[in-house]
Design a protein that fits this description.
chromosome, 1058 residues, FACT complex subunit, Creatin/AminoP/Spt16_N, Creatine Amidinohydrolase, six-stranded mixed β-sheet, PH-domain like, alpha+beta, Creatine Amidinohydrolase, Chain A, domain 1, nucleosome binding, eight-stranded mixed β-sheet, transcription regulation, single chain
């Protein structure tokens, strides 16, 4: 055996004391086990291991050695007598086991001495000496042994011969020892938890992905090949990280079954039939041993499941919940079985004969403890700390919708590794999710009917897109356009039904809050200034009381627009302007126009000071200062109130006192808490995350408040990050935030270009190697954190990773960045501010400035909530247009395109003002028809099918060049100016030049034209004396057209190019 192995002496002695306590029937014994009477009757306990077996088998002897000494040893005899422990083995093993003596101090319930006997050539003589000591223990007649264990090899044969010669009786104590080993301490639970973590990662990251890819690519792969591939994955650091791979092994050969041939037992052999995915179930079962402690996981994947299959699977999940709920401390295992049986009998009695008879067994060093099983006859009581592998399945189910004979029959099987708690449901250690949305593989058929809409999300709805979008970008344009027309038609129908059912609530604006100063006259302050008909400011109610015709009249500070103080000669004038319907600004627009309003008031007071009397102007000066002061205070309060809009009070974070909570250290947060970067620690608790900075700031993010979570590795990036897109804003840094990011830097963000570099420089080589190691270390740490978080039962979402193969460059804010799609969003997380667009909230996508002469185009996302502002990504390279179209098409997202940049602020306002009229006129089809008309106009010719209001073929080109766009002019506002700032077209410059001519210039042009015409008429030869011929017919630049009802909403004023 290896010389560097060290025994945990304290733990070994503690477990020996537990063994003696159970044997001697002290307080630690459990009276619920009938077999304990057999254990109490024995005079000594014998544990013997022979030679090493060719094939691995579970045995109680090996389990006891691992439990006591932490290592399995062969050709070793251990005998527990009344007052001593006899250990007989080779010299190396004795040296290893003698480490126990250093901790042995004759403690309570510990044996009095250890008797180490080194094995030499003559085993029989030593065996005789050991039997003499056994006969001195109690009555020395009965030995407790593990009769079911195989005793192979000469060492065991000689021992058996000696026992036969001395006429000693042997009894089997396997059941009692099995119950002793079933209750795990904290060290054992941590090893089982680690084994479950590896099991879950292998299933989620390897086996499940393998099956999805096989189904997606329609390949033929044998069940045995998948099983062997899973075993070979144990040596891959991608799946087995941060542990010594020498301690990781399979509990049993992985089971993969499909195609109607199912055997819901863990002893089943894997056949060589190919994986079948024609509308049936795929059962996967395997377990991982870590440092000899086992785990188990069973999952069923459904391919194109019918409603009946989904309902049956959900019923099976409910049955497992009954096991988790009923399996508590001191519960009879047979009662747990009866509870599940009753549920099946009451709700789905047809499954009684098809359900598995064994719902789980105790699990630990041995994969199954058959005497501690959830069956109808097991009267054993569960204890806190016991670990079980629970598994429930239904076989022989019929699927009438199956496409072939193999898919007509299916089975369902699920299982997990759990630990028993005292007064609450069991804790699940296997983290892989098993609800219908995570196990259903939905295959879309090209021939799917319009009504055949399956609301069950696939395992990875867009994962196939990642592999196909770049591999096969040449999707036929005609096919794409036809599918997009179908999507647009469905979109209009859904949008009309959704929005019109809301009663045009989309267009309803929030009513402006009316601030009432006083509820009654009795609340008016009784101040002498009011009695003296002076101006008075009531600070408590933020109200200015003005005398009007001798009557004090209150005005709330929110009604005052501005105030000014002017000195003219001997008088001071105080002018107060109020908000009113005829004014400018948002406040004026929200005022009820049916009432009568005061526009302004002016008060005059004298500056003269007579007979030491305070001049009347002091009152105006004082009130002027108070108005400005109260106005500033009120505006700050309003700003703070607006800032807090949308902020929902969160529940309190439930802290988990455990020291093993998932934790990431040395993380920076964005947006920053201060002007400089401050690092801190992100820790996962029971119902949320807590970030604690080094200076003590605490930020809590509840799981229930997270809409989407993203993990972006440091591949081709200088930072590695975790990003949360929140449902409701939280406040920190005096601002509300819906985007919170935690990141750490991988390498240097800046590079010294002036430094001389040599490719053979050792320092640079070492630096690159160190950076690669740092990247791998950080990726492992972040991935381990995420895996541990996902294991928590209360964790309601998954972390999405951006798909780099589908990335494209664009400018969502200020700089050009790489936009990356994820499973359900489009994100840019590297630079701040980030971009997160949830695809489920997108109504359609419109491509602007799509023209063969331009190098870039813009992409606009219109949201389903029409009150939200559209989001745009600008300056996307034209080469990315087709891949983006393919991606959107595969995601069933409708898109349109056009050569113009549209004024979306005005378009959305026009739509929300009259929703019913918008959909009556065709809804979003105006974008599609606009695109078609533009394409026809570029072709030219008299046959072009163009709306006559948009283009008149009888007018020559000069008129078109001289006229402005029918949607430009006074409709342009600040938004359109901002959108037009990046455009530079020569046609617009021409139009602006000509539209700027004065009336005198236009009259001079008309006069010259008349003179040339007269000169032409007087020519006898009918020739023009001007070589240039007759001038082109001009139209007045101020000519305007009324926009017809069926034409599209106003654009930002850019002229179309014909």
């Amino acid at each position: 055996m290896p010389s560097d192995i060290v025994i945990d002496s304290a733990r070994c002695l503690e477990r020996i004391r537990r063994l003696y306590s159970t044997w001697r029937n002290n307080d630690g014994a459990d009276s619920s086990i009938n077999d304990n009477a057999i254990l109490h009757s024995v005079d000594a306990i014998v544990i013997i291991r022979g030679q090493k077996e060719d094939d691995f088998t579970y045995s109680k002897s090996a389990a006891m050695q691992t439990w006591l000494f932490g290592y399995e040893m062969h050709d070793v005899l251990v005998v527990f007598c009344q007052d001593s422990v006899i250990i007989y083995a080779g010299a190396k093993k004795i040296n290893y086991l003698k480490q126990i003596e250093s901790e042995h101090n004759n403690k309570e319930n510990a044996p009095r001495n250890f008797n180490f006997i080194t094995r030499k050539e003559n085993d029989e003589k030593n065996f005789d000496e050991i039997i003499k000591q056994i006969k001195m223990s109690h009555q020395g007649k009965i030995l407790g042994v593990f009769s079911k264990d195989k005793m192979e090899g000469p060492f065991c044969e000689q021992w058996q011969n000696c026992l036969n010669q001395h006429s000693l009786t042997t009894v089997d104590i396997s059941n009692s020892i099995g119950y002793l080993l079933a209750v795990k301490d904290n060290d054992e639970l941590s090893l089982i938890r680690k084994a479950c973590e590896i099991t879950g990662k292998l299933y989620s990251k390897h086996l499940k992905d393998q099956i999805i890819n096989i189904v997606d690519s329609e390949r033929k792969v044998k069940h045995s090949k998948l099983s062997e591939g899973l075993e070979s994955a144990l040596n891959d650091e991608k799946y087995v990280s941060n542990v010594d791979a020498n301690y990781v092994e399979m509990c049993y050969p992985a089971i993969v079954q499909s195609g109607g041939n199912y055997n819901l037992k863990f002893s089943a052999t894997v056949d060589k039939n190919p994986l079948h995915y024609g509308g049936s179930s795929i059962i996967c079962a395997f377990g991982i041993r870590f440092k000899s402690y086992c785990s188990n996981l069973v999952r069923t994947l459904l391919v194109n499941p019918s409603e009946e299959m989904k309902n049956t699977y959900q019923f099976l999940l409910d049955c497992e919940e009954v096991i988790l709920r009923e399996l508590k401390h001191d519960a009879l295992l047979c009662d747990v079985y009866k509870k599940v049986r009753e549920k099946v009998e009451n709700e789905r009695p047809e499954f009684l004969n098809k359900m598995t008879n064994n719902l789980g067994t105790a699990l630990g060093i041995e994969f199954r403890e058959s005497t501690i099983a959830i069956t109808s006859k097991c009267a054993v009581r569960a204890k806190k700390g016991m670990t079980f592998q629970i598994s429930i399945g239904i076989s022989g189910l019929e699927n009438p919708d199956g496409i072939d004979e193999q898919s007509k029959t299916y089975a369902l099987f699920i299982g997990d590794t759990i630990v028993v708690n005292e007064n609450e449901s069991c804790t699940i250690y296997t983290s892989s999710k098993k609800d219908i949305s995570h196990i259903a593989i939905i295959l879309k058929d090209d021939g799917t009917q319009e009504g055949d809409v399956d609301e069950t999300p696939a395992i990875a709805p867009r994962r196939g897109v990642v592999e196909k979008a770049r591999i096969d970008p040449s999707v036929p344009e005609k096919t794409r356009q036809e599918y997009q027309k179908t999507l647009l038609r469905k979109l209009n129908g859904r949008a009309e039904a959704r929005l019109t059912s809301q009663g045009d609530k989309v267009s309803a604006e929030k009513a402006r809050k009316i601030n009432n100063s006083y509820k009654s006259e009795g609340q008016l302050p009784q101040d002498p200034d009011i009695q003296d008909v002076k101006l008075y400011m009531d600070k408590r109610y933020e109200t200015l009381i003005l005398p009007i015709n001798g009557t004090p009249t209150p005005f709330h500070i929110s009604t005052i627009k501005n105030v000014s103080l002017a000195v003219e000669g001997e008088y001071i004038y105080l002018r107060i302007n109020f908000f009113h319907p005829g004014g400018i600004g948002k406040q004026a627009d929200t005022i009820d126009k049916e009432n009568v309003y005061i526009k302004e008031l002016t008060y005059r007071a004298s500056n003269d000071k007579k007979d030491d009397v305070v001049p009347a102007s002091n009152n105006l000066s004082h009130i002027h200062k108070l108005i400005l002061e109260i106005q500033k205070k009120f505006k700050d309060q309003e700003q703070e109130r607006k800032q807090m809009e949308g902020v929902v009070k969160q529940d309190a974070l439930i802290l988990n006192p455990s020291k093993t909570n998932p934790k990431l250290k040395d993380l920076y947060i964005r947006p920053s808490l201060a002007n400089k970067k401050i690092n801190g620690t992100l820790e996962a608790h029971t119902n949320g995350f807590r970030y604690t900075s080094v200076r003590g700031d605490k930020i809590d993010i509840l799981y229930s408040n997270v809409s989407h979570a993203f993990f972006q590795p440091c591949d081709n990036e200088m930072i590695i990050l975790i990003h949360f897109h929140l449902k409701h804003a939280i406040v920190f840094g005096k601002r509300k935030q819906t985007e919170v990011q935690f990141y750490t830097e991988v390498g240097e963000l800046t590079t010294d270009l002036g430094k001389h570099r040599n490719m053979h420089d050792k320092d640079d080589v070492f630096a690159e190697q160190a950076e690669r190691e740092l990247r791998n270390k950080l990726k492992g740490a972040f991935q381990s954190f995420i895996d541990k978080v996902l294991q928590q039962k209360s964790f309601p979402f998954e972390f999405e990773t951006p798909f780099r193969p589908l990335g494209f460059h664009g400018t969502p804010h200020r700089s050009m960045v790489l936009i990356l799609p994820t499973t359900s969003c489009v994100v840019q997380l590297t630079e701040w501010p980030p971009l997160v667009i949830v695809l489920e909230e997108v109504e359609l996508v419109h491509f602007e400035r799509v023209h063969f002469q331009l190098k870039n185009f813009d992409m606009v996302f219109i949201m389903k909530d029409y009150s939200k502002k559209t989001q745009s990504i600008q300056a996307i390279p034209m080469a990315e247009l087709d891949p983006i179209k393919n991606w959107l098409n595969s995601c069933d997202i409708c898109y349109t395109e056009g050569p113009q940049s549209l004024n979306w602020a005005k378009i959305m306002k026009t739509i929300t003002d009259d929703l019913s009229g918008f959909f009556t006129q065709g809804g979003w089809t105006f974008l599609e028809s606009d695109s078609e008309n533009e394409g026809a106009g570029e072709g030219g010719g008299e046959g072009s099918d163009v709306d006559e209001d948009d283009y008149d073929p009888e007018e020559d080109g000069s008129e078109e060049e001289g006229s402005d766009s029918e949607y430009s002019g006074e409709e342009d506002d600040e938004d359109s100016d901002a959108e037009d700032s990046g455009s530079d077209e020569p046609d617009n410059l021409e139009s602006d030049e000509e539209s700027g001519k004065s009336w005198s210039e236009l009259e001079e042009e008309a006069r010259r034209a008349d003179a040339e015409k007269l000169e032409y008429d007087s020519d006898n030869g009918g020739r023009n004396k001007k070589k240039g011929g007759a001038p082109s017919k001009k139209t007045s630049p101020i000519k305007s057209k009324k926009r017809p009802a069926h034409s599209p909403p106003p654009t930002n004023g850019k002229k179309r190019k014909r």
